[in-house]
Description:
Elements: H1 2-10, H2 18-49, H3 60-68, H4 72-84, H5 89-97, H6 102-111, H7 117-133, H8 136-150, H9 152-165, E1 167-172, E2 178-183, H10 186-207, H11 214-217, H12 228-231, E3 235-236, E4 239-240, H13 260-268
Antiparallel strand pairs: 1-2, 3-4
Amino acid sequence: MAAVVDGLLDLDPDTLGDAELADAVVQLHRQQARFAAAVTGITEAADARRDRGDDGSRSCGAWVAHRCRRPVGQARGEVWLGRRLRTMPATAEAFAAGDISLRHAMVLASLADGRSAEYFTRDEAILVDDARTLSWADFVRAAEYWRQHAGPDGVERDADHDHALRRVHLSPGLRGTGILDGLLTPLGYATVNTALRRIEQELFEARLGGRPRRARRCRHRMPSGLHPRAAAPRRLGGTSQARGGPDSVRPSSPNGSTDPTAERAHWSDLPPQLLGGQRGSLGQRPELRPHDRRVHLRGVRGAG
């Protein structure tokens, strides 16, 4: 076994052609799945014997984590999968053949656990075939649909659990900043995400004077003093690039000069969308904050 691995490590990928390299990647991933199946089977056998020396480990997962210096959760997952595969012949066969990966086997084992176990015995062949043929995203979606039909009570229980854990917390940060943290249900996430995307689009269009696409394409044709982006002070990290502060940033006039009169006229000619609905007066510059450009919300799987 070690000699085979040494041979793979000594292989120079630059000596392979494009087709050979692509085939090697596919075959190595297939053999990696088979090797994972062998590791799972041997770990399960060690768990069944319950003879793990005198190191004080109370379970096979703890023993594997200690001896192999693995995370405890990963070691326990391997032991748990080995136990589940005892009653999953089709999954174990596909796993040993390299047709499915370790993560496929973990998902299938989760379907065979709990109240849906009796239905999994009936539909195991169909689910394994989905794992062989579908993409990962489609397989996970199909497995989740099957879980909802096989155990509707469990789905309701999960929804109640997510609803009980929902929270939103705003805590103060440094320099007057705020830290927003929360956990939303799937419906709450969809609602907030849709609202924030709409606000982001409105702000984006307002920054470009109501022309979100055409203004950007024609930027090189517009005089620098008329383009909305040229109107805002150029800042880095919230401070002006110019040493003299924001007031020293002056757009050039059409003839290349920096006349203060031209600057006042330039700022007063900004459209209302850029001024938050208020048109600035002569000699008064509105405060445009670059850090207010975009609003993002990233979803966490399982958090809703």
